[in-house]
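Thread: coenzyme A complex, take 2
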Amino acid sequence: MNKVGTRQIETDRLLLRRFVIEDAEDMYSGWCNDPEVTRFLTWPVHESVEVTRYVLNDWIPRYEGGDYFNWVMELKETGKIIGNISVVRVREDIGEALIGYCMSRSYWGNEYMPEALKAVINYLFDVAGMNRVCATHDSNNPKSGRVMQKAGMKYEGTLRQAGLNIQGICDSVCYSVIKSDREQQ
Ligand SMILES: CC(C)(COP(=O)(O)OP(=O)(O)OC[C@H]1O[C@@H](n2cnc3c(N)ncnc32)[C@H](O)[C@@H]1OP(=O)(O)O)[C@@H](O)C(=O)NCCC(=O)NCCS
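Output below.
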């Protein structure tokens, strides 16, 4: 793995960049305070913007390390921030990155997340030198699986009751891309 950390990525419609503390208000009102967004996530809605600020104050110093990958998604057309995509776990021994993401509900259905995920996958292989990029979702949240499919990830299987989110224990649907998948294309 190359210790490149979170560098800016540009796609057709999005700028993926590092969070700054000034993002707290829009992040809170956009997605962190919406129970529909957090329904299948590991964290509950933020009670106030202070919680969002606290989270950002924890995240931002981590950009100093080369093994921290966490982007805010900014819409190029408007400059508004619309969501978050990050690596939630790195396994350096096998060069694996596990990805997580969420987005403001008012922007759902425009394929912004597949666009972001494709770009992050490319970055993790081509810049960060990963060997395997994976993602999982609760079997009750198939729309997240659609994002993985649209980004070219392969379905690997469903691990029964292997996931945990704020709903409790769930079946975990697993997707991945490995380096050799890309070399075959
Ligand atoms: C999952 C999520 C990131 C999808 O992002 P997106 O940019 O809307 O992705 P897409 O536009 O490709 O839509 C994906 C699927 O979501 C569903 N969807 C789209 N718009 C929707 C809407 N307004 N309401 C409910 N579901 C919707 C559809 O099933 C769609 O699949 P389809 O294109 O085959 O019909 C977004 O819904 C989200 O942030 N959800 C809450 C957080 C979450 O679940 N994160 C993943 C945890 S594993």
